[in-house]
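SEQUENCE-TO-STRUCTURE ENTRY
===========================
Question of interest: how does this chain fold, as expressed in backbone structure tokens?
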Amino acid sequence: MHMRKGRRNLLGTGTMAAALTAGLVVMAPAAHAATGSARISAAQAGSFGFASATWTWSGPGRLTNIDLHVSDDECNSNPVYVKFRVTRTNGATWTTGTGRYDYNGCSGNGTVHPDLSLSDDFNIRNVALVLCNERTGVDQCYTGPNSGNNPLA
């Protein structure tokens, strides 16, 4: 009888119940994060630049902690920029509206755009980088290869 009363008191205290709950959460496997990356080389992009990105797949339709590097390798006074092309698990695609630029021309080491995020209301299968050279009239753009598939989608 004494042990039951002691056990009830131990589990009944708010501090111990919270500690047990927290212990279970900490011990659970981390199934909600995976890393991804994509790259488009100068050879794939008409030699005017290159871009690369790393990120965390943080859900079926979400990328976080995106670190994007874009570099302009052509000395033509036209900046380069990158967008993401998103492929959903149903096969539909869309491209982000915001371009991330490097205005350094052929000097410097490019521009890093850290800590970006991207989300979709649908599951994202993979993404690709779209590297563009800003031109008068129509911009010249190349799409790199797809990243690996989102393991959480």
Summary: Strands lie at 34-40, 49-59, 62-72, 80-88, 93-95, 100-102, 111-119, 124-133, 140-143. DSSP finds two helices and nine strands in the chain. The two ends are 51 Å apart (CA to CA). The longest strand covers residues 49-59.
